[in-house]
Design a protein that fits this description.
single chain; about 110 residues; mainly alpha
Length: about 110
C-alpha cells in the first residue's frame, strides 16, 4: 500500500500512520482469527484521512458555508459598491473611469488633435 518514500526520498507524510496501522494488525490478528482487526478501525481511519483528507475537506466546506451564512445575515456596513470596484479603488471618480474607457473625450472633430 504505502512504500514509505516521499517525493524527496525521505519518509512520506502518511508513513507513520501506515506503520501504526500495520502494528495494530500484527498485534490484534493472526492467521486463524482476523476478528481483532476491528480494533484497528481508528488507525485505519487515521491513515485514510492522511491519504485523502476527506474529513478536513468536509470541515473546510462547512466552515465556508457557515461564514457565508454569517455574512448574509449581517452584511458589512462599509462594503464596496460595484462602482467602487470598477473604479479600482478610486471612490467617487466616475469621470476618471469615463476617461479610461474613452467615453468622455474632449477631442473635437474639427481640431484634428
Amino acid at each position: 500500500m504505502a512504500s514509505g518514500y516521499g517525493l524527496s526520498g525521505g519518509p512520506s507524510r502518511c508513513f507513520p500512520f501506515w506503520q501504526e496501522l500495520l502494528a495494530c494488525y500484527v498485534v490484534n490478528t493472526n492467521t486463524d482469527d482476523v476478528t481483532g482487526a476491528k480494533k484497528c478501525v481508528p488507525a485505519l481511519e487515521d491513515y485514510y484521512e492522511c491519504l485523502h483528507h476527506r474529513k478536513e475537506k468536509a470541515r473546510a466546506i462547512e466552515l465556508q458555508r457557515a461564514y457565508r451564512r454569517a455574512e448574509a445575515a449581517h452584511p458589512r456596513e462599509s462594503a464596496p459598491r460595484p462602482g467602487a470596484i470598477r473604479n479600482l479603488g478610486l471612490l467617487d471618480r466616475e469621470e476618471d473611469t469615463k476617461d479610461v474607457l474613452g467615453t468622455n473625450r474632449s477631442i473635437t472633430a474639427g481640431n484634428g488633435k
